[in-house]
Each structure stands twice: as C-alpha cells, then as structure tokens.
Amino acid sequence: MALVTNVCDYEELAKQKLPKMVYDFYAAGVEDQWTLRENRELATARAAAAAETIMIYKDRNLVQQLIQRAEKAGYKAIVLTVDAPWLGRREADVKNRFTLPQNVMLKIFEGLDQGKIDKTNGSGLAAYVASQIDRSFSWKDIKWLQTVTSLPVLVKGIITAQDTRIAIEYGAAGIIMSNHGGRQLDYLPATISCLEEVVREANGRVPVFIDSRFRRGTDVFKALALGASGVFIGRPVLFSLAVDGEAGVRNALRMLRDELEITMALSGCTSVVLQPDPFLSELTSMYERSTEKGSVWVTMKRSSMKCQARLKKMAAKGEAVELRCLVRATDGKKNICTSLSAKEYLKFQASYATVLKAHMHALKKRERKDKKKAAEVEKIPEKAPKKQKKAPSSKKSAGSKS
Known catalytic residues? Predict the structure, then answer.
C-alpha cells in the first residue's frame, strides 16, 4: 500500500480501490456541488461516546425499536436528523445508474418486527425506507422522543441561530451543525462560517458540535477556537475503512489527533479546554463589544514575554504561582468582573460554553445586590421639612392703649 501521510490520502487510495459507482456515491455532492467545494475551502480530537443517528419514520413503532436496541447496545445519545425529509439529487448517482445489489440488506433493520422490510432487499429496500420517512415531522417530535428514551437527544442539521433557539426551546440536549457534506442541498454555507452565530445563540445552554469537510487537525483547531465542543468526521472514516479496514480507521484518527497536538503546541496551547479566547482575539472582542444583557466572556490571553520571564524566575525560586483568567459580564449598562484559577478551570473538563454558564452567577449576584440596595433606599422615609418660626408682629393689638 502507498504511504499515507494524511487522511486526504485515504480518499485517493479509496478512489483507486472502490468501484466508481460506490466511490462517487460517497464522495460526490448534489447538483453543482457548490457546498461540497465551499466545505473544502472553509474548513475528532476528543473521544466521543457512540451515538445512534435516527430519522423519524411514519411507523413510530419502528423508531422505538431502533432506540431500544441502541440503549441495550450501550449507546450514550440519540442524534436526530431534522433537515433531510428528502434525499438530495446526486447527479453522479444518476450518471452511474447507481443501484444496490439484490443481496444487500440493511443491518439496522435486522431482527425488527417489520414484515415488509424483511422481505425487501437491494435498491427496493432503499426506496422503501426512503418512502417511510415522515415528512410531517415537526419540532414537537423532539418532545415525543424524550418520552420513549432517557438518552439525551441531539439535533443534527442546524446551521442558523434561529433553528438553534427553537431546538433548545423544544428540549434538544445538543446541536450538531451539519450540511451533510454537500450531499443534500446545494449552495448551503460551510458550517464553520456559521459556527460563531450558533455558539452565541446557544450561550452555554447546550454543547455545539460540528461536521462537514474536516480533514486536518488545523480544521479541528479552528472549530474549537470558535467555540465548538467537538468535531465529527464522516467520509475519512469510510475511505480509510475501505482501504485498510479497522487499522485504517485507527490510523486516520491518530493522524488527526497528531496534527491537532502539533497545532496546539505551535500556538502555545496545552489543552483544548482553554478555548476559544487564547486562539482568536476576534471572538473575544466580539463579546467585549456586546452590550446585550446577560453577555459573558472569558479573557485568557497568553502571557507577554515580560510576564513569562517573571513566572520563570518565580518557578526557579520555588515560589507558588497561580494562573488565573478573568471572567467579565455585562447587564447592558455596567460591567462586573471575577476571576477563575487555572485549577478550577481544568476541573470543569468542559467547553467554553459550560464555563460561561457556570459563571453567569456573577451577573445575577450583582443584580440581586442592586435590587436589595434599591429596596433599602425606598424604605428610608423622607425627613419632613422644618417649620419656620413666625416672626413677632410689630403691630400692636387693637385693644392696646396708645
């Protein structure tokens, strides 16, 4: 096998190994493939627990069976795709006359109580399953899912602040930003170009994950720097699996991890937890400019050369050094500040959003203090003005003698 130096090499090798029809099915996008190219131009570091991705089918019993099997298998979350009621028009599949062999079965439906599915295979099976997608699906179905499973339900396919707000209102436990790698709707923006607005809308209430065309550790670094809680990858896993099986997948993930670690080291970062501010001053300045009530931001700039030299001297003398970051908040009129030690920060082992949520109490505490002070002022009675003494009259009374 040829030398593989990055995950993109697996795609080239898979192209040589897989039948053209199969390769194009995975690699191509829809129509003009504009979104696919945009993903490339704009571009997981952290181990993730398995999550079952589902669609909402007309037969709710089928959905429940899939969820129950996922729970028994030890899955930790349910990922609900909300933006793909129809399959995109993939012209590469049309040109290749893509069909599934008659002996191909979908393992996901094996053993389920679905008579018609059990008797269908090949492309007929794919067509039948596609026809069973419930196109009347609405946000309320997130609530229904929560009644049939205790697992957290993450919503996949969000790329706008408005949809983020609605998903959270209906109980989504997390957001997965995705344009499906350009395979569904063309001319969608690259997900990373929408990341800041989605993170800002989520505001620490739920984690925000992202996928679509992440091929380098530097791509992962950018997403974490902009506030993502994690990154998902799709095609690299398929291509590395096609080339070298399980060993290929392990190698692809290892290369992504190594690239991320090198990027962090060269950027002066020791942990993916300390994000996003150490990486992009633009994001920090965005929060600093904000006058919206409840805005909170964290400043954790890397130390200046002078500060670093001082820290080295203190460490050489054995003096205790405690690094702290500044947490600031605004209620729209005034700013308040508090600090957080590095040990406390690392103890959270969570994303930037979680830190914002944890330290929102600083703003609430100030608001309570202001309300208490205002109430005390209202209770103080105003002093009545002193009565002026009447000056003695110079006129004599009418009954007095002259």
Answer: 180
